[in-house]
Amino acid sequence: MSTPTESGPAHCGSKPKRFAVGIAPLGTISIGIVPMGVICIGVVPMGVVSIGVVAMGLINFCVVGMGVLAVGVNTMGVWTAGPVSMGLVQLGGRSSSGGHDHHGHHGSPGEQAREELMAYPTREEAEEAAKRVGCEGVHAMGKLWMPCEHHPETH
User: Fold this and answer.
1) Which residue has the higher pLDDT, 105 or 152?
2) From 52, 103, 108, 116, which residue has the greatest number of CB atoms within 10 Å?
């Protein structure tokens, strides 16, 4: 059985090179279509530090990526930054809700949930809510009651 040499291709199952280039290169520093290693640059990089289009690794700089720290357009991880990112910590001053509140609810958390749902266990509660929001009538929704005779038009 021959052992891989530094000049031969580095791929899965072979000894990683220090610097590898190719379709699926395996190296400490890899550049290619699907590079794998410590520092990877390419279309679909998979490494400790990944820079590319669709990246997977601990630290990612990409269009779409998953990792502990992911920076890009659409990212997922523990620490994320980007316009469409999901993470425990949103970098760049964004909150996890996208930085804005579409509903504008105020009050206690229980009150917020009830206003958001606009569904009530009794018809009377729904009628009171209808008066508050400025519509007439109520309608049944499963076992609950909702204010207004019809659902409002959405934007």
Assistant:
1) 152
2) 52
